[in-house]
Amino acid sequence: MRLFSVLFAAAMACASACFAEEPAKKPAPLVACIEPAVMRTDAARLLPGSKLTVIIPATEDEFGLTRLSKKEFDATGLKWEQFLAQASSAAAAHLKTLTPEIHRDAKNTPQYAVLESKSHLTASIVLCPEFFTQFSEIFGDRLVAIVPDRFTVCVFPRGFTDFQTVGPTILEKYARSIWPCSQEAFEISADGLKCLGAFEEGEDKEDPPKKDAGQKPAAKPVKPSAKPAKPATPKKPASPPKRTGKQ
Question: For 101-157, how does the pLDDT look when each residue is reduced to its tens digit (9 = 90+)?
Fold first, then answer.
């Protein structure tokens, strides 16, 4: 019995030592979840200049993304800027795996590009500097990005004039998606990302949108500019003149 007790004590001591030496598991890195503002959690913040689109700290899992509550985010000990840095790093790594489909005109000039994948991280690529670097080489130093759902990003040169043609298709993708992101258009430049306004709203305007007080941008704010135009509404044909006498 005494021998058994000694062996048991030694086994327990060995087991305790093994458990004590196991390194603590690192928490999953945070990524950005972009969603309509109506679906926000208490940890969400509006994207710079946006009224309809938020960014939420999240973790990637087998089902897609798990959004964090404010309490869960606070428990990470990260400041918002640190979260954005982590999310940007994850987005940049995912961007490298994507092959853009570049649409060209009859003269073979690039008109716009579409990036799609099955990953829920796809929408977040607009937040990393590498996105601007890659597409500014194709479309110039001012881009417009539209992110209808988690799996699709459309990018245009700022001077693109055919939004009336491609716009309805993009908005339909937003409306039909199980995981919609935004119906707003975002300008991206070397200074960062800034919302231009809802794609389906209003005509082009020269006056820039007012900056939201106290709103912290995901990156440096860009110079404000006009909203993309919505498709023109056809006018009703004029009514025929009334007859004034017998014929």
Answer: 999 999 999 999 999 999 999 999 999 999 999 999 999 999 999 999 999 999 999
Give the CA count within 13 Å in the CB-facing half-sphere of 157: 16
Are 138 and 110 in contact by the 8 Å Cβ rule? The answer is yes
Q: What angle do CA 29, 113, 167 make, to 5 degrees?
A: 100
Measured between alpha carbons, how far is 234 from 183 in angstroms, rounded to an integer?
23
Q: Rounded to two decimals, what is the model's pTM?
A: 0.71
What separation, in Å, do the N-terminal and C-terminal C-alpha atoms of the chain show?
127
The H or E element containing residue 152 is strand 152-157
Q: What is the 3-state secondary structure (H, E, C) of 85-142?
A: HHHHHHHHHHHCCCCCEEEECCCCCEEEEEEECCCCCHHHHHHCHHHHHHHHHHHCCC
Cα–Cα distance measured from residue 90 to residue 226, given in angstroms and rounded to the nearest whole number: 31
Task: At 231, list the tokens.
Answer: 């498709």
Q: Which residue has the tokens 């309509």?
A: 36
* 181's tokens: 């992101």
